[in-house]
Design brief:
The protein is α+β, with helices and mostly antiparallel strands. The protein has helices at about 50-55, 75-80, 120-130; strands spanning about 5-15, 20-30, 40, 60-65, 90-95, 140. The N and C termini lie far apart (about 50 Å).
Length: about 150
């Protein structure tokens, strides 16, 4: 059995909107056409082949971001929502102060202390297809592309 490890090569290529996407091209050290090459976008760790599948989704889509999230920035969320071009998309951008917090960050959203504040937002979306009246935030909506 071949024990050589995979190698990674940093790559940059333009997205459809011209934004430079950076990632890594992984290929086994023993180059063989039967072994797949994997490209990973370092920002999301999503294999690039899945991005085309995002466009196949037609359901209304909600994305949330917090002003103190160093990973889920407004620009990153807008790029992400761009992949769901056949869905009506809503982006809710909140400040932690809107829910009575000084900070939330990227991973804390899933902490149960936000059950009555942050969690109810996607719950309202899933149950009723709308945002709750509170908390207030910046809302951007993008329409689905017209189907041919």
């Amino acid at each position: 059995m071949d024990q050589r490890v995979s190698t990674a090569q940093a790559i940059t290529f333009p997205a459809a909107d011209g934004y430079p996407l950076k990632g890594f091209r992984w290929q086994h050290a023993n180059v063989d056409v039967a072994r797949p090459v994997v490209v990973i976008n370092a920002a999301t760790s999503v294999r690039c082949r899945y991005y085309a599948r995002f466009a196949a989704m037609h359901a209304p889509t909600l994305a949330m971001s917090l002003s103190d999230d160093e990973f889920g920035t407004v620009a990153a969320i807008r790029r992400l929502l761009g992949y769901y071009r056949n869905s009506a998309r809503t982006h809710l951008h909140l400040r932690p102060e809107a829910i009575g917090e000084k900070q939330v960050g990227h991973f804390a959203f899933f902490n149960s202390r936000y059950e009555q504040t942050l969690w109810r937002i996607p719950l309202e979306w899933l149950r009723h297809g709308r945002l709750p009246a509170q908390p207030q935030g910046e809302v951007q909506t993008l329409r689905a592309q017209a189907r041919a």
